[in-house]
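debug: dumping io for the single-chain case to check the tokenizer round-trip. Nothing else runs in this session.
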Amino acid sequence: MLIRKNRGNFLEDFRVGQLFRHKVGKTVTEGLFNAFTEFGMTTNPLSKNLRYAQRYGFKGLIAPPGLVMNIVFSQSVEDISENARANLEYRDMRFGAPVYIGDTIEVETTIVGVQPSSKEPDRGVVHVQTTGRNQSGEVVLTLQRKVQIWKDKQEAKVEAASQAEILAIPCDLHIPAYDKNRKYQELAHLTNLDTYFEDFNVGDTLEHSRGRTVTTAHMEWTAMLDNTSQVHSNQYLVDQNPTKYIGGQLIVYGGIPFNLCLGLSCPDVGDNALGDICYITGRHTGPVFVGDTVFAATEITGKRDYSGRADLGIVATILRGYKFIKKSEAWEKIEIFYLAREMAVKRKSHYANTSLENGKRYIFEAQTEQNSTISSMAQPEKSGALK
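debug: decoded output
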């Protein structure tokens, strides 16, 4: 007997109030942690320097926010978005307990809305609330998202419905208490001098200097995260009906440019953050394909005190990702990603080494003086015998 198994759900399979407790779970191994952290280009020492993370009161290296988001998101894919056309929007993505190497994350999703398309009878939008918890039951991340999903049968009847009120999932960022006896300043040289709370000015836009070209390795990263959506990995499926799929080719899983944009921005806005608090809203505004190079820019939109933490401030930003497409002889800048982001950022008054900047300048001046001395010693003495 030949049995063809199908995985994933279609638009007509969803009902408001459904609870999916997603299969498998994911333990954060050292290999996954290291590989994804390096791939994501984060420069925050909390994710790369054990001595630094422990000095700040964490028990180990902290998984960067892009990795936490991708693990939680990807576990929901088989049940929610394996048959999706596109992920439309993230909402109210909040971070909670830190994730360490060895932690196991399990995820569940509640369906909070179903909306068939009024123009395209073969698709519609599903609105979900997804939450990831560690082995102790602590929430590490909770988010809402809206996904455009295909119908299995175009004639299937789907009624529009939504929850009158979405249940709020308690989730607050866990940050160890400030302790002046930890002598944070001794390790201040491990981050940039100009990325403390006091250094940001509302209205500024920081154009991040690095870019990252996406290669076919995106399929390996997608598989490593357990994301089973076929539009990222099954070219044969796309080839059967290329007009049905965006660009008629494999589309890069959105979590990859999401994570790259976070990493590209990190040296300029994130390496003195003790955590990302919330992504208020985010969306993929353009597709990414193999060969595209991702760039990013951050607009500083607000600053405020962090309640109960005189050592920290909250910096609100808009993170934008973009790529360039050559048209004729010109390059056109195309936005691919948008994220309204809030971070808990250290105050220079509490964490910076006040003598560090002068110290670095002194080292430079001393080296310059030493080089000048060596140079003068190397010159031959003036003599009438020399021609």
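debug: round-trip ok. Residues 380-387 have pLDDT under 50 and may be disordered.
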